[in-house]
C-alpha cells in the first residue's frame, strides 16, 4: 500500500487547489467572511427570518449564506453584511 505524499499547505486552500493568486485571495476572504457571518447568526440565536431583518436581505439570501453558497455573494456584499452585523472588517496586507 503506497502512501500519498503529504504536501504542506500554502495557507490558502484555494491557492493549493490551483486557483490564481488573485482569485485565491478573493475566495479566501469571501469564505472567511461567510464563516464569520454564519457564526454570528448562530451565536445570536437568530432564525433566518431574524437574520434577514437585521442584515437587510431576503430570507432566501440568508439561507444561501448559511449553506455556504459563496458563489452567490460578492466580496462587497459580504463586507456590507458583516458591517450590518456589527463586525468591523479590516484588510491586512502581508
Largest sheet: none
CATH superfamily of the domain at 32-94: lambda repressor-like DNA-binding domains
What's the CATH architecture name of the domain at 32-94?
A: Orthogonal Bundle
Uncertain residue segments: none
> Rg, please?
16 Å
- Give the oligomeric state of the chains in this entry, treating copies of one chain as homo and distinct chains as hetero: single chain
- The helix-strand sequence is HHHHH
* Through-space gap between termini: 41 Å
Per the principal axes of the C-alpha atoms, what is the gross shape?
elongated
CATH class group of the domain at 32-94? Mainly Alpha
CATH topology of the domain at 32-94: 434 Repressor (Amino-terminal Domain)
Please tally the β strands and state the result: 0
- Helix proportion range: 55-70%
Class derived from helix and strand content: mainly alpha
Question: What share of residues are in beta strands?
Answer: under 5%
Please tell me the overall pLDDT: 92
Number of helices: 5
